[in-house]
Write a structure and sequence with these properties.
The structure holds two protein chains of two kinds. By secondary structure, chain A is mostly beta strands. Chain A is 0% helix and 50% strand. In chain A, a hairpin with a 2-residue loop joins β5 (42-51) and β6. Chain B is mainly β. In chain B, a hairpin with a 5-residue loop joins β4 and β5. The relative contact order of chain B is 0.34. The chains are: A mainly beta, B mainly beta. The interface between A and B is medium-sized, with 24 and 22 residues.
Amino acid sequence: EAQVTQNPRYLITVTGKKLTVTCSQNMNHEYMSWYRQDPGLGLRQIYYSMNVEVTDKGDVPEGYKVSRKEKRNFPLILESPSPNQTSLYFCASSFGQGRGNTEAFFGQGTRLTVV
Amino acid sequence: GEDVEQSLFLSVREGDSSVINCTYTDSSSTYLYWYKQEPGAGLQLLTYIFSNMDMKQDQRLTVLLNKKDKHLSLRIADTQTGDSAIYFCAERGPSGGYQKVTFGIGTKLQVIP
């Protein structure tokens, strides 16, 4: 089954404690991205990756890091989480440019609370 | 930068048609999308339209695009309680290079039995 898998689904952590949210896709997609969803703000892109070893900042990259060492995985790293990073996070993947009507597959989401 | 705007809330009776509207600012958009988000779930792509099309129909869903006014709408015929969800409009553009997707804040559709 084609899917994007995020882990964990729920996480409560304390300020400053490094954490990683994993994302994996099984569709051989080139393009992967991370979004955060906040009430009244919709989805905002954090980082994206157009292929292995190619990553770039989205609209709200501050406080986040990513890596793309393999095509299927795109982890989101919070080196020193703060309460303003409490949010619902989504990973998405799709075929890269040149594929016309690409479709983005979304993971189920990770609800992060930083206290 | 690009902006996508939607109304926050829509309430309809079961069996009626729902129309969710969206406006966008990027005149170089290539594709426009409608996503559905059910409670506790990720986003599911419902349908999309290429920017050189005016209309697209897919079963109960009809997408209308007015490129001149940068207005996109999603019509759901015979709305069912299972259609209750948040609907996001999104646009992708420009063509060539990095094709960023910009989302609206979502319209919550409530279907009254």
